[in-house]
Amino acid sequence: MTDHWNALEALAQNASEHSILSLFDTPGRAEEFSTQTGDMLFDYSKTSIVAGIRDALIALAGAAGVAEKREAMFAGEAINDTEGRAVLHTALRNLDGGPVMVAGEDVMPGVLATLERMRGFAREIRNSKITDVVNIGIGGSDLGPAMAVEALSPYHDGPRCHFVSNVDGAHIADTLRGLDAKTTLVIVASKTFTTIETMTNARTARAWMTDHGGDPAAQFAALSTADDLTADFGIPAERVFGFEDWVGGRYSMWGPIGLSVMIAIGPDAFDAFLRGGQAMDRHFRAAAFEENMPVLLALTGIWHAQVCGHASRAVLPYDQRLKKLPDYFQQLEMESNGKRVQMDGTPVLVDSGPVVWGAAGTNGQHAFYQLIHQGTRVIPCEFMIAANGHEPDLAHHHQLLIANCLAQSEALMRGRSADEAREKMRTKGFTGDELERQAQHRVFEGNRPSVTLSYPLLDPFTLGQIVALYEHRVFVEGVILGINSFDQWGVELGKELATSLQPVVEGTAPAEGKDGSTARLVAFIHRNRDPA
Ligand SMILES: O=P(O)(O)OC[C@H]1O[C@H](O)[C@H](O)[C@@H](O)[C@@H]1O
């Protein structure tokens, strides 16, 4: 692998001698550096990647064993080897794809039976007196469904959905205020059913329901792998939707964790979402790397983060309803690929995954794009735009949205030279030193890379394609980095310390053994706390 990384570094040196804009002097660049699957287009031509770089990146992916590991994943091998688990979220959307074997057993009958139970339950709730659904979960048991319910609001014809994640009592208090306990369904979503935030919120919701005339025995459902714990909590088996440990939390919205989405948009639209994911799986398995959208998206990411050294990437959906997508991708990418060692326990050879962040366009333009355009660090951008909105009466809004999205990627690439800036200031009447000073503030270096994903309409099928595209992108990047993208040991230490600090904060244990800063903060909080 070291040879491949070295070769890419040398290519990056050469690439810095040509501007991205100048690459378009070669006819056909946009066609050659874009790929399509179904009706979705991924354009990576506004990057410094040229044919030789793409070949080298594909060779890197080949050397890392991406094709073999991809098949191992789909074949149910225990590729999450620090936890000894298979990785089969793809089975959850394998609606008609045949058997999927785990340890010699076909898991599809179980997956399809649970899906059918979910459909029955969703129909029952949609036809009942339930007006509001509260999904209590955190991380992978919250971000995906919360994002999808908002993304698919034009298809939302079921009860209202609310999402409570934070252990901060403000979250559940604000959410329950105004809800009718007699017509609310609470879904406790937790793979492990031990997560302290979720279990604390679930108990609070149960007490609220009892106190306000609802019936927790009839109005609670659970989504979990731990049926013993859901039973202990008092949720009857017919309202428990289980899944297996081969579904990672941040990959779980395709199965029971997506129940709130199914209740919101109905089983048929949820099926379309699954089919979008399945279509992307098929493309990912079948397409040559040169045309493979998840592979090319991953290679673009590797080029920018690990080869060119850009430490973050911005996800910029020009779609108000996708405003939670950056948060969702943050967990998907950063929890998966923020790792210090390779599979064999030795340090990673290059930087691990980048910081992923972003916001919906055009809002971000009026907040942080200044830094993206003129800050000293390069931030590769990932734009998303639909050809159509869901508001035919407001088509002029959508034209403006598209124009803004395309304008940003063009501006990032093209920039504005010092001469252009001087000319601009000259026409405004500036001269001499003041002209020069004013002009410098208006220079955009340009040559800033971006990619754009475009599709006809953000419908359930398309959302399924987008989510699966990014899941596979993360997988490919993880394989190239040599890491396990499916564990998350890095979240453990903070949890353990929170458990040990709880009695200290409550005042039932001394702050002994804690560092001076922590002890002082505890003392300050104790002094300032209102008496109970
Ligand atoms: O679904 P749960 O078991 O409650 O887990 C919820 C979340 O908690 C953990 O801290 C993990 O880092 C996440 O990957 C997970 O999604």
Number of domains: 4
The strand line-up of the biggest sheet is: 1-2-13-12-10-11
Assembly state (oligomeric): single chain
**In angstroms, what separates the terminal alpha carbons?**
60 Å
- Please give the CATH class of the largest domain: Alpha Beta
Q: Which ligands are bound?
A: 6-O-phosphono-alpha-D-glucopyranose
Whole-number mean pLDDT: 97
CATH-assigned fold name of the largest domain: Rossmann fold
SSE-based structural type:
alpha/beta
Instruction: Give the percentage of residues in beta strands.
Output: 5-15%
Radius of gyration: 25 Å
| Count of β-strands | 13
Main sheet record: 6 strands, mixed
Supply the CATH architecture of the largest domain: 3-Layer(aba) Sandwich
Q: Give the low-confidence spans.
A: none
Subcellular location: Cytoplasm
Pathway: Carbohydrate biosynthesis; gluconeogenesis; Carbohydrate degradation; glycolysis; D-glyceraldehyde 3-phosphate and glycerone phosphate from D-glucose: step 2/4
Keywords: Cytoplasm, Gluconeogenesis, Glycolysis, Isomerase
Catalytic activity: alpha-D-glucose 6-phosphate = beta-D-fructose 6-phosphate
